[in-house]
Amino acid sequence: MHMSPTEVFLLAILIIFTGPYLVWRLGRTDYWAPLVVVQIIGGILLGPGVLGALMPDYYAFVFQPSTMAALNGIAWWAVMLFVWVAGLELDVTEAWRRRGETGVTAGLALGMPLVAGSLAALVMLHFPGWRGTAGAEWQVVLGIGMACAVTALPILVLLLEKLSILRSPLGQRVLRYASLDDIAIWGVLALILLDWERVTRQVGFLVGFAVATWAVRRLIRAIPENDRWYVGLIWLAACAFAADWSGLHFMVGAFLAGAVLDAHWFGEARMDRFRQTVLLAVMPVFFLSTGLKTQWGVGGLAVFAAAALLLVASVGGKLGGLALAGRILKWPKGEARTIGWLLQTKALIMIIFANILLDKQIITNETFTALLLMAVASTMLTIPMVAPMLRRDPGMAKRGF
Predict the structure, then answer these.
(1) Which pTM does this prediction carry?
(2) What is the DSSP string of 168-209?
């Protein structure tokens, strides 16, 4: 059957939005797999490792090069918008006010899974197929370790809302810890991507970015709120372009573009609606493009074994780090374990992080697939583990530090 490129593109969009929604709604998966997780899993199932293997002709017909070019353009812009909002939502003021407690907790919550994940990466590198063609060993080890340590702040917000503790003292504490770790993630990514052949460009980008930030902040303060949104998007595109040109990744520029602006300039309620709109309308396309990068070339069992190893390192390291923080800071019994499970939410930010490593050929498609499976599994564990703890100790959510 002949279809025009437009018709094939719309067929792909129809599949992307219809399939995961029906599974989520009819399967009532919300407790253990929110819609965003179902969409990520849907992207994996629609990728070459599953649909491409089961129905290669249909896969080649729907996801032909012209369709993928259009979908990738949407996916790039969608994830840039999402990361920009994540940068906007960072609030380090409260973290600085409680810097002692926050620093100890955030440091251990990041450091222990980073070490555990790096050790897991060293085990993986004893076997072929995990290191990308452009990746040095230290980049692969640090990248995989950081992927095990990351907490996805936007997904954490969604799950805290679902548990009805977002505005509680416990919810705000968890957001503080995750915010500091979010900053560290992008700093480590910039280190991994540092290109000594283009270091002059990168230094130039940072200097130009600092000067431009001063000018943009003055401009945005002086204009109406509606104009701030439009100028903010221009600023986002400019920073992403400049970062990519310098040899960093456009996602680094997108995050920095949001992080240097103040969230209250854009209105909290309006920013919440904007984030939800991006998640609803365009991020599913990014999830599909992510799924299309999954590969099982070193053998399906090897990929699943690597994912299991990374999951143990990620979950064990995070829980161990929080247990140590709780002991040092003398938290009540059960609090460290609850916070440790809340900080397991890795989907989205970790997937974006791993996408960048894959784009730069630091890791292989198989490593990316193992990381993706680990991120989905750790995120799916969060609510089933935390909800019973909160039911057993309902006063926990009301305790601040």
Answers:
(1) 0.84
(2) SHHHHHHHHHHHHHHHHHHHHHHHHH--GGGHHHHHHHHHHH
